[in-house]
Amino acid sequence: MVTEPAPDNAPDETPAARHPRTPDSSRRSERSRRAIYDAALALVAEIGYARTTIEGIAARAGVGKQTIYRWWPSKADVLLEAFLDLGEQAARSAGQEGTAVPDTGDLAADLKAVLRATVDELCDPAFEAPSRALAAEGVVDEQLGREFVTKLLEPSLRLYADRLRAAQAAGQVRPDVDPRIALELFVSPLAQRWLQRTAPISYEYTDTLVDYALHGLAPRA
Questions:
Q1: CA of 153: how far to CAs of 135, 161, 177, in Å?
Q2: Deepest in the core among 29, 121, 156, 163, taking most CB within 10 A?
Q3: Which of 197, 167, 161, 206 is nearest to 180 (CA)?
Q4: Strands, DSSP E only, in the chain?
């Protein structure tokens, strides 16, 4: 096939057009993104965070490592984003709409519902293995630990605190209670039992945590 030469007045392709300086994350291939997420989560579960590499993730996902570097600056960013996505998928599967803790007016029921969904996540093998690997690595890797808290843990804690503040406004929790401390009464015991495997976690366990916590938080006569 013969192609005709471009006309003399055809615009030249600029260097910036050939080599854009800032990658457009909105143009990520959804298939590649999913493959990278799956590969990152699988590898960190199989061989641990320390041995997981960008090269390994790329090979597992069937993409070039430069593709990953265009979208994420480090393996920590890949893994944390993949983990966030995993949590969002779990929330959708559990029928949780939006990001706020439900507010039906019944604080105990709302907290129990969210913690039961958390139990489901923690007992799901797809979630448990990478979650344990990242949590363990975050203890020894300060930078990863800070990112884990900032990107994953802190947003969830803010939602609990917001729900407790709403309960304070409704007169269901004492006004002098610090929501950030109060939420630890049911969140921290669950996390510790799961991480250290000191005992099984269940709906009955988290329901009891809520009952114990709220009994201590009830308004004083």
A1: 11, 12, 21
A2: 163
A3: 161
A4: none
